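Let us practice reading a record.
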Amino acid sequence: QVQLVESGGGLVQAGGSLRLSCSASIRIFNINAMGWYRQAPGKQRELVAVMTRAGNINYADSVKDRFTISRDSANTTVSLQMTNLKPEDTAVYYCNINSARVGGLANYWGQGTQVTVSS
């Protein structure tokens, strides 16, 4: 059973930085993409950043030039460096790993970590 464990959330003042990390409990093969999503109260979950197997990266417009996604060489950890945080970045952040498996695709989610940015 694959589990994704997130860490690094917390409370920070506007303009501050946080680094989120997400580690898989076991190695996941045939990864298509690793990414971060967030969900603010009363809003739908939205994509923050995603990195494909080929290394292509997409960011939500709202976080471009402020957030950086990265992964380790073994594809067991995906991180999100967040700088110049704004109150509107407040949300629960979820990591996601999508992989191919026999019979289709597997989608793994972390439990979520709270990020709160005070003004």
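A brief commentary: Residues 31 and 99 are 4 Å apart (CA to CA).
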